[in-house]
Amino acid sequence: MQKSFSLDLLKVGEKATIRQLDSSELPSKFYEMGLLPGTVLEVKHKAPFHGPIGLQISNPNILIAIRKSEAIHIFVEK
């Protein structure tokens, strides 16, 4: 069994499955955008200097950007 880790540790091009979200730290818009446990996503872009992270959500095919400070509250598995 693989260990889950925070989304901000993924590199560009890596895919992972969301396992858990710290709902007390994230606004409800994350659930509305499709960031739910079981969702497969891929890191498309990472801005320098702790900037936003571009994510592609597999189903439906959506590209979003989130802050690194938000990504640390989303736990994923490869």
From TrEMBL:
InterPro entries given in the database record: Fe-transptr_FeoA-like, FeoA, FeoA_core_dom, Transcriptional_repressor_C
SUPFAM superfamilies documented for this protein: C-terminal domain of transcriptional repressors (SSF50037)
UniProt keywords, alphabetically: Iron
Pfam family, any one: FeoA
This protein's record includes keyword Hydrolase: no
Organism domain of life: Bacteria
Domain Ferrous iron transporter FeoA-like: 5-78
Gene3D superfamilies: 2.30.30.90
Name of this chain's protein: Ferrous iron transport protein A
